[in-house]
Write a structure and sequence with these properties.
By secondary structure, the protein is of the alpha+beta class. Helix content is 53%, strand content 12%. It contains eleven helices and four strands, in the order αααααααααβββαβα. The chain has a four-stranded mixed beta sheet, with helices on one face. The N and C termini lie far apart (98 Å).
Length: 246
């Protein structure tokens, strides 16, 4: 028999007993409850028990004084959970979300997009309203027919196709023991990350840098793409040199 039913039957039986017998029964029950609390670390609570105490908390102001197997805030949490579940069931009776768009309207929107590629979504909304169909602009854009475009080549594809035609150059500085600063020019071929030229100077100029490129790449081995930064050390000589290669 569920504990809730047993408690209700005991309440009805105690209603017709004398006050002395009722007090003795309460004493016996409290003693047994104390024994159970000492021996059972955590009681097993059934859904009917939660419902009973939630109901009792609404009817009796002194329920917290006799509650022993759980904390009063636990009963309050049970009641709040039942409240949330009740209103969740009420709010989810219908189908959630917007009503589905009719298939005929969707086909009509797609046909209008295909037949009038220069029209925008506001124009199609207006034409549909003339037919007595009231839809939002976002709905029209959702069912828009988007033409499939060929994918553009990626940067990895570009490097794979032109890696033999790419070279890079840059400077870095090296301090010496005599507190001087030397500028080191490195030219690198991207095909196999191979260093093709290295030279050092104390006073780099645009003419000197352009001459290094000429010495590195004769006319028949000039790269198609030469990567560098925007340092003014390259100057106009390197740009003119690149145009002459082309």
């Amino acid at each position: 028999m569920p504990p809730v039913v047993s408690a209700l039957l005991a309440f009805l039986a105690a209603y017709f007993r004398s006050r002395r017998a009722l007090q003795l029964e309460i004493l016996a029950l409290r003693h047994q409850l104390a024994v159970y609390q000492r021996s059972v670390p955590r009681p097993c609570i059934q859904p009917s028990d939660r419902l009973f105490w939630s109901w009792l908390a609404c009817l009796w102001s002194g329920w917290q004084d006799v509650l022993a197997f759980v904390q009063p805030r636990t009963v309050v949490a049970w009641h709040q959970k039942r409240f949330r579940e009740h209103w969740r069931r009420l709010s989810q009776r219908g189908k959630p979300g917007r009503p589905a768009m009719a298939q005929e309207v969707r086909v009509l929107i797609q046909t209008m997009w295909q037949s009038n590629p220069t029209w925008g979504a506001p124009r199609i909304v207006g034409e549909l309203q003339k037919l007595g169909i009231d839809v939002a602009k976002s709905t029209v854009e959702r069912y828009r027919v988007r033409p499939r475009q060929p994918p553009s080549p990626t940067w990895k594809t570009f490097l794979h196709n032109h890696v033999r035609d790419v070279a890079a150059m840059d400077f870095f500085v090296v301090p010496t023991v005599t507190f001087k600063v030397l500028f080191v020019l490195v030219i690198l071929a991207h095909e196999r990350r191979r260093i093709v030229h290295v030279n050092v100077t104390e006073y780099p100029t645009a003419e000197w840098t352009a001459q290094q490129v000429v010495d590195t790449f004769p006319w028949d081995t000039a790269p198609r793409y030469l990567l560098r930064d925007r340092d003014r050390i390259y100057g106009e000589h390197l740009g003119a040199l690149h145009n002459s290669y082309e």
